[in-house]
Amino acid sequence: MSIILFVIYAVITLISIIFLSLREFHMLQLNGYKTPEHTWWMKKNYKRYIFPALCFVLQYALFWTDISLPMVIAFSLFNISIAIANKPGKKFKKPFVYTARVKRMLTTFFILIAVIFTCAYFWGRYWVTDIYYFDAEGYAIIGSALYLTPILVPLANIINKPIETAIQHWYINDAKRILSEMPDLHKVGITGSYGKTSMKFYLSELLASQYETLKTPESFNTPMGVTITVRRDMKPTHEYFICEMGARRVHEIKELCDIANPHDGIITSVGPQHLETFNSIENVVNTKFELADSVVKSGGKIYVNGDNELIRNKIKDYPTAITYGMNEGNNWRATDISVSDKGTEFTIISPDGKSCRYTTKLLGEHSVLNLTGAIAYAVGTGIPMEKLVLPIKRIASVPHRLQLLDKGNGVTFIDDAYNSNPSGCRAALAVLGLFDACRILVTPGMVELGEKQEELNYEFGQEASKACDYIVLVGKNQTVPIYNGIKDSGYNMEQVYVADNLNDALAKVQAYHTDKKKIVLLENDLPDNY
Predict the structure, then answer these.
(1) Residue 13's CB: how many other CB atoms inside 10 A?
(2) CA–CA dist 114, 120 (Å, integer)
(3) How far apart are CA 488 and CA 494, in angstroms?
(4) What pLDDT, on the 0 to 100 scale, is given for residue 296?
(5) Cβ(167)–Cβ(396) below 8 Å
(6) E-assigned strands of 77-180?
(7) Smallest Cα–Cα separation from 449: which of 192, 194, 273, 249?
(8) Residue 462 CA to its chain's centroid (Å)
């Protein structure tokens, strides 16, 4: 085949490679640039790779048997279809961000592609009467670049790892330097399987009533998230730094403590979260308490949720831990809780017996639990209990965490879309039950729960059947355990709908006819890599 036809096939294939690689890099980014997590994700989503793999084998085999113009045209058209299927422009919940790291990986990736194309050119060509022609080998090598893209993307990440590690270390050391040059800055670490972001927002509001306070924004709870916050936002005038600390593996909290070096810490909860990477609940407990180890070692205070059974069992090893909660025996205790769809009232009793009554716009008893911990810590900094009444009243819902959104047309949403967990699901259903309305649940269920995922989603389905008038499940495969839990509870299955996606689910919600106002709980919203 002539060089012109070879170039046309190569250009078409290259366009397909570009589009497909951007989609794969997006998934890698959603998996935190972590090759093990991305590899696990690829295994879990193996079906999306079966057809391309078979096409690669077929194309490779056919090219070797007989190369002809119709065959080249056919495979060119097929490669065009791959380009169309992966073309940019699809709306994602979390769009692909062209960070400096992504640009470096793209550079490495296209160097690999350039090497493959170069090999195809030199190995596949032959000379006949002053004209270059290309045999099956050249076309097969070009085609292999496209179908090997899902492997080449994480390979580029692996190749770049030493460079990325060196860059990250430089930024982290610079953040450490900034913190070390602020000896009067008081640093607070917050971790937990759930509740840590809410605790961070609540505590920030309380401390900001008297101190210049900086917190890590949104869910910036990784080493680079903390580093970016310090280098970008830290000012000499800041008196308190609230550092949210997240983890998916053992020792990741210790890594964050080594960066922030917190004086004090708060552990909001311990539960079955990220079990697919932690492997056991014991590893979750020990990792969360790496914050306590760091704080206690430096002579600081550790505040813990005393209502959490796993925490109660663990704090026997930490006699100086300060507990908060709603149960008897906690150092700081919330009592006389009154909950409605307008907000919550509660009383806090301090260790010395003093009490104060608070009112908040936040919904549900679980919000009181986090507020109790925030009040306990704020009072420990020297703010009187009564001076926290107004800041507590002003606190608004954290975005996507039981956030009340009135959309009009008789529909109100309770947006609890951020990373659901068993405890959060129960709390959200309890909040839904506060409303005298047509109660509708929209959910794809819970993920990253390891071997317990099916069991816990089944239980979620049973609990949902007691609290909801209608249930809309998002995703046919993902929600099977929830569906079974609902069915086994004796729920009217005519009031259950399984949607293909969120848009389909919301359309179904609008289609329900009811005399009452609709209150819709959006419980969890899985990212695009699910």
Answers:
(1) 26
(2) 10
(3) 14
(4) 93
(5) no
(6) 125-128, 131-134
(7) 273
(8) 25
Contact 456, 422 (CB under 8 A): yes
The beta strands (E) that lie in 292-331 are given as 302-305, 322-325
Q: Hey, what are 75's tokens?
A: 């495979």
Q: Other CB atoms closer than 10 Å to residue 18's CB: what's the count? A: 18
Provide the CA 129 distance to its chain's centre, in angstroms: 61
> Hey, what domains does the chain have and what are their CATH numbers?
3-162 (no CATH), 182-394 (3.40.1190.10), 403-523 (3.90.190.20)
Give me the pLDDT at residue 162, please: 96
pTM for the model: 0.83
Question: Can you read off the two tokens belonging to residue 310?
Answer: 């796993």
Hey, which residues does 473 pair with through a beta bridge? 443, 498
List the helix and strand counts (H, then E) for the chain.
Answer: 20, 17
29: tokens are 């980014």
Residue 323 has φ and ψ, to the nearest 5°, of: -100, 150
The neighbouring-strand residues paired with 214 are 241
Residue 327's closest CA among 305, 344, 343? Answer: 305
- 42-80: per-residue pLDDT in tens? 887 787 777 777 777 776 676 666 666 777 777 778 778
Q: How many other β-carbons are positioned within 10 Å of the β-carbon of residue 63? A: 23
C-alpha 168/C-alpha 41 separation (Å) is 25
What are the φ and ψ backbone dihedral angles of 446, each rounded to 5 degrees?
Answer: -105, 150
Amino acid residing at 331: N
> How far is the C-alpha of 465 from the C-alpha of 467, rounded, in Å?
6
Tens-digit pLDDT profile for residues 314-353: 999 999 999 999 999 999 999 999 988 888 999 999 999 9
Tell the burial category of 49 from Cβ atoms under 10 Å away from its Cβ (0-12, 13-18, 19+): middle
What's the sign of the alpha-carbon dihedral 421, 424, 430, 433?
negative
pLDDT at position 64 is 63
Q: How confident is the model at residue 388 (pLDDT cuts 50, 70, 90)?
A: very high
CA atoms 202, 207, 208, 209: torsion sign: positive
Report how far residue 498's alpha carbon sits from residue 490's, in angstroms, rounded to the nearest whole number: 17
Amino acid of residue 164:
E
What does the mean pLDDT of the chain come to?
Answer: 88
